[in-house]
Design a protein that fits this description.
Helix content is about 50%, strand content about 0%. The chain is mostly helical. The N and C termini lie far apart (about 65 Å). InterPro entries: Ankyrin_rpt, Ankyrin_rpt-contain_sf.
């Protein structure tokens, strides 16, 4: 990682005593008067012991007074505490979160701006501080969908959008998961200073991109991401799956149509590590509406086979998805699929019989275009497989 993009991991202070319970209550309420009186009462004795840190104390989770005030969004109280002890801004809690993380997660954009403006001398240390999961304050704001806090952080340090956590999650990916279109817009806007800061990362876990995550979420987020970076449509995760593979498992025909019509039909011809094309994915889970859209935009979907030589009808027959089988049976132009053989010589009827899928066996056996006598490489016809499976109804369906 470039020097400008490095994470700052702040060491946790040790030896802090537990925070007074009355002080904790006042901090949560935002009761600045009580907090001031507490500090005034304790200041003389605490400084005699070597500094303020001993009388501020921390909670069981390692949260300082500044963490509490920031996390509850008490602006005036946070300012008071910072003015008394500015060093607390860089001290993490037990989870590795600084007060800036807490303010960002709470959507306390005024406090976020305060911490940024008050910490110019150690800006990078404060802004790029990460918790124990490697998350910055921008991650925290994105996870909770707080656009104002995210905007303040991005204005101060655009590099934050390029930092991923220990699981490979970028702030943009986190924003998509939170379904916050506003935060997505903030992160994909042009760089605040017009300088050389890196572009926002779109990374997610297991090789996913923010667009992969958007497949099951707000369609406006999909539009924004594709407008920002159309090339995301062809990016694959660790399993070789594209955004369209993900969409194929949903019922979102509108998103599939938009992708194929406005972006690129080439994604329909990209296979994953199993050799599955998006049409295979749709067939495996019975998404006939998605399959129809794919067939309409790409008329040779019937020719695509996976690593075992199976077309999407083979897949539907094996996984017991009658909606897909019925779709093929209604389409004369797809008739050749019905007797197509995989690399072991199996037709869809072979696989349906082998998988004991009686409904599929019946559908295929009743179709006049289906040949019942095709022999696979083991020398078996579909009826032979039905007999070996010994499931009532399978043999009858074929004989009839």
């Amino acid at each position: 990682m470039a020097e400008a993009e490095k994470r700052i991991d702040i060491p946790k202070a040790e030896g802090d005593q537990r925070m007074d319970n009355e002080l904790l209550k006042a901090l949560k309420r935002g009761d600045a008067g009580t907090v001031e009186r507490f500090f005034s009462r304790e200041a003389v004795s605490s400084e005699a012991e070597g500094g303020r840190r001993s009388w501020w104390g921390v909670t069981k989770g390692g949260n300082s007074a500044l963490h509490i005030a920031a996390g509850f969004g008490h602006f005036e109280l946070a300012k008071l505490i910072y003015d008394v002890d500015s060093s607390l801004l860089t001290v993490p809690n037990a989870a590795g979160e600084t007060p800036l993380h807490c303010a960002a997660r709470a959507g306390a954009d005024q406090i976020v701006s305060l911490f940024i403006s008050e910490a110019r001398r150690c800006e990078e240390e404060v802004l790029r501080a990460t918790d124990r999961e490697g998350k910055t304050a921008l991650h925290a704001a994105a996870e909770e969908g707080h656009a104002a806090a995210a905007r303040a952080l991005m204005s101060a340090d655009p590099v934050l959008a390029a930092i991923v956590d220990h699981n490979g999650v970028s702030p943009l990916y986190a924003a998509v998961l939170s379904e916050s279109l506003e935060v997505v817009q903030v992160l994909t806007e042009s760089r605040a200073d017009g300088g050389d800061a890196p572009e926002a990362s779109y990374a997610g876990p297991n090789g996913q991109t923010a667009l992969h995550a958007a497949a099951y979420r707000n369609p406006e987020i999909i539009n924004k991401l594709l407008e920002w970076k159309p090339a995301l449509a062809t990016k694959v995760d660790n399993s070789g799956s594209t955004f369209l593979h993900y969409l194929a498992a949903t019922t979102r025909t509108d998103a599939v149509q938009q992708l194929l019509k406005c972006v690129d039909t080439s994604t329909a011809y990209l296979s994953d590590c199993q050799g599955y094309f998006p049409i295979h994915v749709a067939a495996s889970v019975g998404r006939d509406s998605i399959a129809l859209v794919l067939i309409d935009h790409c008329n040779d979907m019937d020719e695509l086979v996976d690593k075992e030589g199976r077309n999407f009808l083979h897949i539907a027959a094996q996984f017991d998805e009658p909606a897909i089988v019925e779709l093929v049976c209604r389409q004369p132009l797809l008739a050749k699929m019905m007797n197509a053989r995989d690399y072991k010589g199996n037709t869809p009827l072979h696989l349906a019989a082998k998988s004991k899928n009686q409904r599929i066996v019946s559908l295929l056996s009743e179709n006049k275009r289906v040949h019942h006598s095709i022999i696979n490489k083991d020398g078996l016809a579909p009826i032979d497989l039905a007999i070996t499976q010994q499931k009532p109804g399978l043999v009858g369906a074929q004989v009839s």
